Amino acid sequence: MKAATRSNPGPHCPVDIDKTTSASQNLWRFLKNDRVSLEKLMEPLRKLGRDGCRNSQSKFVLVAHDWCKLDYKSHANRKSDLLQLTHKTDIGYDLTTALLVEADSGITLAPMQIHLKTSEALHSTAKEPPLWEGHHLDQLETTMAEASNGWDLLRTPVHVIDREADSLGRRRRWHSLGHLFLVRCDDRRVRCEGRSVLLSELDEELDQTFQYVDAGKALHEGKKVQRQVGERTVTLYRPHSAVIDGEKKSIAGKPIELRAVFVRLVDDDGWIVAQWTLLTNVPGDEADASEVGKWYYFRWRIESFFKLLKSHGLELEYWQQETGLAIAKRLLLAAMACVLVKQLEASESEAAIKFRRHLIRLSGRRMKRGVEFTGPALLAGYYVHLNMLDYLMATELSLEEMKDMENAALSEIIDV
């Protein structure tokens, strides 16, 4: 299902197909088939996710949520259902993904849910898809409910979401429904130990009283840094905003008690190179601040997953399918290749290490000093490996006959 190149974005032609048009036609028929539904294509991925949960030692499993825009401006005239996202010239599709990640190791297990919003419909793998008219944050509750009751994960899901979901009203609702969450937030006023303070003030107090503790190493821009964490129990008590009948109103909601976990990354010189403020309702006796901070660090797995799908792997934004539904179907097929690569990256078995080295050699990619492999290089090498196997199985020529064929052709060229 690989796109050939950005300048030639049709499907990569397998070696057992003589004409490139045949590959494109086969793909078109498959994606056009009504019996090929998003739910059926998602099921193998969910099975991978469930199998991964069975092998985990943690009580929890992480569900990382994120959104990304699929930009098709370079060939927008071929797609009739593109959506205006922000301004007039900002058109494309809005993709929501829920990625299952191991809580103890950060290994990517599988995408478990997608929603692709177009100008005409919201194509979803959910049993009860969210409304097209709703904000994309409204899609979270549908996925949270299915994660708890429909995916048979055998682990308690914790929903990890970036700052875009920093909404007091939504946190109140998720908490009331029993969903566990971990959300990055901006500075806000809370109640702590009987006083009204800003989260930034609590952060400063932890720093000045030396209450940050080391919580292991992390990578920041390719360099190892020290992760440090601090924690306070806070109460969110202020009103939240909600749009009712088209009018924005202030709602006095029920106070909720959460854990504020402060995480920072410190380099060898003692400089803070990154820091986050997190709010979670995961009980402290089941996951300490160090573990919670590590969970948010693992959220980056969904960014690297998007990277494989888009700019550094499968060239998602150059696909020529003419509808959002066809794009969504092909995306789920491509996701299977991405999951395979991510799990191959994470494995430390002797067989996996040997196979990774084999794929890197086939890819022809150069690695930075000290870097043994990358996801995009493994993906590129895997396609070479599969094509090579297909050709060797399809051809009747021996290795010596192939060499003779080459020598005979080159001899004629040199003679001319």
TrEMBL record:
InterPro entries: RNaseH-like_sf (IPR012337), Transposase_11 (IPR002559)
Domain Transposase IS4-like: from-to ranges: 155-339
PANTHER family, A to Z: TRANSPOSASE INSL FOR INSERTION SEQUENCE ELEMENT IS186A-RELATED (PTHR33258:SF1)
Name of the molecule in the record: IS4 family transposase ISRba2
Lineage: Bacteria, Pseudomonadati, Planctomycetota, Planctomycetia, Pirellulales
